[in-house]
Batch of 4 targets.
Target 1
Amino acid sequence: MKLNIACLPGDGIGPEIMNSAVQVLKQIAQTYQHDFTFSTNLFGGHAIDETGNALPDDTLNNCLNADAVLLAAVGGPKWDQGAERPESGLLRLRKSLNLYANIRPVDVYDELVNYSPLKAEQVRNVSFVVVRELTGGIYFSEPRFHNENEATDTLSYTRDEIERIVTYGFELAKSRKGKLTSVDKANVLESSKLWRKIVNQLSVNYPEVEVEHLLVDAAAMELIRNPRRFDVIVTENLFGDILSDEASMITGSLGMLPSASRSGNGPSLYEPIHGSAPDIAGQNKANPIAMLRSVAMMLRNFKLVDEANAIENAIVKSFHNGYLTSDLGGKSTTTQFTEQVVNQLKFQAVGGANR
């Protein structure tokens, strides 16, 4: 397969983990005889430094014309007080690519059960997906303003926006364990009342899927108390942002969770859910697993299932060989862990994965 991949290293640890992603993809291309091309593009804080714009026109055009977009990390305190913030580029990119559904799988590896801050019996065999609406809600609605004495943010959703993301959630639940948990704040918010009504209306089309409604505060508690109860969680933009970050700690580290942002009519975007970690940037300490698992999600989207499985298997075998980064209590550097994954991919090829 031939793929044109737009790479957005971004800020902080971004360039380091993007380098890991490209190394692994090059090995996959060699092993499975694919043709992957990569373009490196300015984005985020570094783009502001170079151009004054977090999302330069050239970067956006390259993303729009790519088969897929890989994003590493964006933001940092250096740009917090500027007229343009790095995160504004990310919001514009999501809108421009029509990235309406953010998919965040939460899986606890057996090998890392004891690294979770929760008890092992709570997290063993945990596997669920957070489906977050990505282009509506409070992050995008108008009006919004602030002055020295007051501030206003607006939360609005249309029926079409809600139906689109909830349908995605139902379809995903149908392909998994058949349970959909819709998270809202319908006891307070008008937008959540509409959200819950639409979930109930759509549920008649999916009789095989069990549906439950949870208020967001109850969902936050249940993620810690009994995360195994979940299969697919579907929710709006703000709630999904917060809950998926909370859920990441079930696995032991923010550095473990990948994500895919699906487009309605163009290339999808793949990125780890963690931030730019400026405190460890340039120190070769970053955990590249979330970035590599995002790469695996990208490959699965192109029906390259064997290739995606090879990456996941290589990560697990690296654990078995004692390779863990410092956020998981290990001593491996970013470079060492990446090299181990690449070596495992080579071993798999020698063992018969090549075709």
Target 2
Amino acid sequence: MRLKVVVCYDGTLFSGYQVQPNARTVQGEIERVLKKMHKGESIRIHASGRTDQGVHAMGQVFHFDSVLKIPPKNWERALNTMLPDDIQVQSVQRVSDDFHARFDVEEKEYRYMLYHQQTLNVFQRNYACFVLETLNIEEMRKACRYLIGTHDFSSFCAANSTVKGDKVRTIIEASIECENNKIQFSIKGTGFLYNMVRIIVGTLIEIGKGNRQPYDMQTIMQAKDRTYADKTAPSQGLYLWEVIYEKNE
């Protein structure tokens, strides 16, 4: 039986999603619980993708196979009882055996949270980025328009990325919403490169500060060179918001 699981987690105390030796990870914690439920048998989970250290998720998706005859709602209750408090299962659903949480993804949405204020909010320091300078939101929105469509995003990929093949990706939506001093970036696409969203946000921040112009986004993309873009935005502001599949499996 194959099960599709939607999970959220606070990435603050994790060394990222992917299992690592001698490190606390989201995958490691979930597989530890599944192993216990399966009487010592190791169960491997397959996620829609990885998140880095400090990055959060509101709607990460993974699948796994099990011989246990447990109804989905009971799976949800059992997992939430055994998982640590910074991981919570949102739903469990039985799916066809050919479903794959990574390869069947149609779209993903990431959101990035930023606060514009003069002092650090100690209660939000692990969940948002703080910028002291005044930001020109309209200029940042103009820059977002250059991201829409299918482009080579090499300039927005971490230099140490091990991605194979081209770095062409399609961005469906890129928007910025403001509420008082809170700024939320939303980027939706069919696929993303390593650190792509954080590098985009870091560059948009510089445009907002007036250090760059909106049309620089196009120049940066055409360069296909990481050194043309700006600093990578801090990890704690990033959230894997939603993973979308073609149909309800």
Target 3
Amino acid sequence: MKRLLSPLIAGALLLASTAWSQEATIRKNLGERIPQLQQLDEVIKSPMPGLYEIRVNGTEIYYTDADANFLVQGNLIDTRQKRNLTEERIEKLSAIAFDALPFKDAFTMVRGNGKRKLAVFEDPNCGYCKRFEKDLQKINNVTVYLFLYPILSPDSTEKSKNIWCAKDKAKTWQDWMVRDVTPAAASCDSAAIARNVELGRKFKITGTPTLVFADGSRVPGAIGADQVEKRLN
């Protein structure tokens, strides 16, 4: 048994040493040649032989060869399984722990039994958000956690405060987004809105609407009711 294990252990150590050496070479060469890539978050082998994935700024993915002589920016596609491996990787990296979201800083809209969960970051002056909200009316048996996320203009912040301070937040929001009824002026402790903006920056939410599903996956941009249903299910 000892004779059998020794070569196996030696082989594993050799592979680990080779992988470390390869990573060191990639980090060194890219750092010297491209100043923006001096700090890499991660270097790993990609599913394609001879190609390495490098990750920077949390979720930015590039590819390179073993000596970092070439840099590839784009999507890696598995043609056999018809999968976009780069998209899948970014989606996994950008996932948000749903249960860890600060729901106290959101208001809820419940339809039907409310069993399915969805969190949405929206700006009240976002035209795509209005289109999305109209589509969302078709979705039943869902609880929507709405995080006001005013990033488009100062007026977005003012409208968000009026909606947050309204007696019935959900109705005021729906009246504005779906029926174009301007929110009445209101005042209260609206610190939650500033916290939402900070939260969005933390998660690199750069546009609205941004949807976060119960499995942690996120979707930037307005999608149709059929796509929402598919992800909720």
Target 4
Amino acid sequence: MARYCAAGHAESSRANVIRRRLSGRVRAGLAGLVGVLIAVLVMPGAWAEGVPVPDEDPFYVAPSGLEANVNGAVLNSRPISVLGLGLPVAGWQLQYRSTDSAGGAVADVATVMTPLLPWLGGGGRPLLSYQVAEDSLGTRCAPSFALRGGRDFSIVNTALDIPFLTAMLLRGWAVVVSDYEGPQSRFFDGVNSGRGVLDGVRAARSFAPVGITADSPIGAWGYSGGAFATLWAMQQRASYAPELWFSGVAAGGVPADIAAISRKVDGGIQAGLAVLMVVAFARIDPDSGLAEDLNDRGRELLVRESAACGADMVLRHLNRQLDEYSDTPNLLWHPQFQAATDRQELGAVAPDMPLYMYHSNADDVIPVGGFTALVHRYCALGANISVVHSGIPGHNPAAAVESIGAMNYLGDRFAGIPAAAGCTG
């Protein structure tokens, strides 16, 4: 026994030396990812030339016989240079089969990344499903376009998540980022988004070059719009993808009480988000009657913004009020709008894996009341949640600061450390 322990210690020491040497080289290269955000804004020439938007890229075209494939099946794949740069990260894009909220077969796309560093931790390399806040009405806003090196203002939401993606890769985790809104860019369609996330995980797990093994722990994380998709996926896991088990899940800045969010931003600097929601619900819920409530300007809006990104709309609708586009006074308080948002609210089912949920008490975009009510619903249904009501003021500042706790929580779950039972915090 003593001889075995000594050999094990020597093996561990050699592994640590190798890890430090490799880690130093790889970490230096990965740290350059953080600088990419600056390149997005001031040095666009550093990005890949000639990356077509998804609607003009044959890779996104659904193959014939799509329906015959199982959910999560990889339909097509291609290697990519992540962000169009020579980074020490292996990257692929996978086209995979999913099922939308109407039950139809769709071809979604996910970007999978893994650091060029052997995983020397216990078990298999962890796989983290990270949901960017896609917030879009068109596929040019999809994260796959940005992560392949697309250069357009539409990449701003993905670019903002580069520091978080960097931190995950520095920990040695493989990461899958799905275009969970699907080819029709169905913003705030919970069932559609959740299925897109789960099938993206299925595709990444089955794609041999990523190196995910049977003992690789799986996790998920999203903030804001990404939290919406993450939690919808977790609510559907048991019924839609029962073979997947998530060791831990983090969700912050959660869009709960969607109608309250739209009312908060209406008429302010984020008013474009309210416009985005109305256009999105008119499209994904045509029986809601919202389109009929709009005036001529509103109907023109539906056409003009049909492929817009949330960032586009924030700039174009600064300080606008939704009633400028409606024949119905106080549209955001109208029962038809409330009913459309209610159909997409989280909380009907409690996720059955350990959760870490966080939200700023002074969020300037998403009122904390909806988050608190959602946590209470989940807890009443038996969820296990570590809850953080953050004192960091503001939606984006809280995203940055509280990411540390979320990352550490996921790291502990990947290491096999049990989460506290019940609702704590």
